[in-house]
TrEMBL record:
ATPase subunit of a proteasome-like degradation complex; this subunit has chaperone activity. The binding of ATP and its subsequent hydrolysis by HslU are essential for unfolding of protein substrates subsequently hydrolyzed by HslV. HslU recognizes the N-terminal part of its protein substrates and unfolds these before they are guided to HslV for hydrolysis. This is ATP-dependent protease ATPase subunit HslU. The gene is hslU. It comes from Megasphaera elsdenii DSM 20460. GO terms for biological process: protein unfolding. It holds the Pfam family ClpB_D2-small.
């Protein structure tokens, strides 16, 4: 599942396609990932002793902390989950149990393995789905229906094998040939727009929502699944297009092909060996000096997280999962608190500390243009669907970058997310009028940007609300 044969330099090169700057953070995560590849090539005794070097990313919001972790997991095909530390509470308080992050990680791994296994059987499932569609158009009689005398089975002719479809009879062509031609048309999607009536399974909706609240979330899901497996699925007839019927039949055929026991085993192994948990807002549970009120459980949350990061066994509905070799990446701004405010035991479990830098004007300029599917490319593509061609000049890009940097400096620093708010403001009128305007070529230069933003940026109080 995991493509950890990538070298650290190759990993950084891939991350550079999507994330600007932050070379130290990229270097750290690439080494952590490569160490997994190195560990698997050691003896079993040595493998058990080597634990992941968890990473603590320190830096303001919007500088790429989450994106680095997410892209890293996607790059190597590892199970990944992003959680926020503030959503968890100490055991005994109302709120999420910290073990839920591992259960959610396993659930993501199950989905990943299911998708991979489904790809293996996709062609077979589609063929079976097409056969079921053919059976609706031109049903074959079963042996029980056709044969009254047991000896008749030895004398049945080819023409007796199926019922004739609701089509004009073509006596000059054998029925089997016509049936085969219809099957070929179905496979070639030539009949996708035709409407047919098929039997589909009804979803059991009656028991949903019996239990609510985060504290009973896992119990609720398990209870619903248990009832769903006990209650027989009712069938009902529905009219739909051949294309829609093929999707439904294909899903049903895939379910028959997939072995859930094998999927669960692979998913648990992938979670234990390759899983990545990204814990955001880690600084919010590190604040000191609070003795009562809503902050009373913050140190308790740290103590609950500690055994999971150290290596524990978490019970999930798919079975026990060991966390010894899961990579944990924690992140926080640490404006008010410091990493040293964390309990000492937890500090020791995040030995790699990386401080991410605030974005400069040059960083903003590069973010706008360099990454794959950059913001400028996205907006060009969106408006091109209405026939509008956007042209961003160099001085226009520079102006957007400078405004983003200035607003971040004078108001709240939200990093690269500021570019989204500024571009939306600049292109608001164009996006609104795009389907109707005669002038389909829009040049976004310095004058265009200044005309849209100057008044707002000059008024700092207004910037707080608009940008």
């Amino acid at each position: 599942m995991e493509k950890t044969e990538l070298t650290p330099k190759q990993i950084v090169a891939e991350l550079n396609k999507y994330i600007v700057g932050q070379s130290e953070a990229k270097k750290s995560v690439s080494i952590a990932l490569r160490n997994r590849w190195r560990r698997k090539r050691l003896s079993e005794d040595m493998q058990d002793e080597i634990i992941p070097k968890n990473i603590l990313l320190i830096g303001p919001t919007g500088v790429g902390k989450t994106e680095i972790a997410r892209r890293l997991a996607k790059l190597v095909g590892a199970p990944f989950i992003k959680v926020e530390a503030t959503k968890y509470t100490e055991v005994g308080y109302v709120g999420r149990d910290v073990e839920q992050m591992i259960r959610d990680l396993v659930a993501n791994a199950i989905r990943m393995v299911q998708e991979q296994e489904s790809q293996r059987y996709e062609e077979k499932a589609e063929e079976e789905a097409n056969k079921r569609i053919l059976q609706v158009f031109w049903p074959k009689k079963s042996i029980k229906e056709k044969v009254k005398n047991p000896m008749d089975v030895f004398f049945s002719s080819d023409d007796d094998e199926e019922d004739t479809p609701e089509e004009p009879k073509q006596l000059e062509e054998p029925k089997s040939d016509r049936r085969q031609k219809m099957f070929e048309d179905i496979c070639a999607h030539k009949m996708d727009d035709r409407e047919i009536e098929v039997e589909v399974a009804e979803q059991n909706q009656g028991f949903q929502g019996i239990l609510t609240g985060n504290s009973t979330e896992e119990l609720t899901n398990n209870f619903q699944e248990m009832l769903g497996s006990i209650m027989p699925k009712k069938k009902k007839k529905k009219k739909m297009t051949v294309a829609k019927a093929r999707e439904i039949f294909k899903e049903e055929e895939l379910e028959k092909c997939l072995d859930m026991d094998i999927i669960v085993d692979k998913a648990i192994e992938a979670t234990e060996e390759s899983g990545i948990v990204f814990i955001d807002e880690f600084d919010k549970i590190a604040e000191k000096g609070h003795a009562n009120g809503p902050d009373v459980s913050r140190e308790g949350v740290q103590r609950d997280i500690l055994p999971i990061v150290e290596g524990a066994t978490v019970n999930t509905k798919y079975g026990p999962v060991k966390t010894d070799h899961i990579l944990f990446i924690a992140a926080g701004a640490f404006h008010v608190s410091k990493p040293s405010d964390l309990i000492p035991e937890l500090q020791g479990r995040f030995p790699i500390r990386v401080e991410l830098q605030s974005l400069t004007v040059d960083d903003f300029r590069r973010i706008l243009t360099e990454p794959n599917q950059s913001l400028v490319k996205q907006y060009k593509a969106l408006l091109e669907t209405d026939g509008v061609t956007l042209e961003f000049t160099d001085d226009g890009i520079d102006a957007i970058a400078e405004y983003a940097y200035r607003v971040n400096l004078e108001t709240e620093n939200i990093g690269a997310r500021r570019l989204h708010t500024i571009l939306e403001k600049i292109l608001e009128d164009v996006a609104y009028e795009a389907p109707d305007i005669d002038e389909k070529h829009i040049v976004v230069n310095k004058g265009f940007v200044s005309g849209k933003l100057n008044d707002v940026v000059q008024n700092v109080d207004l910037s707080h609300y608009i940008l």
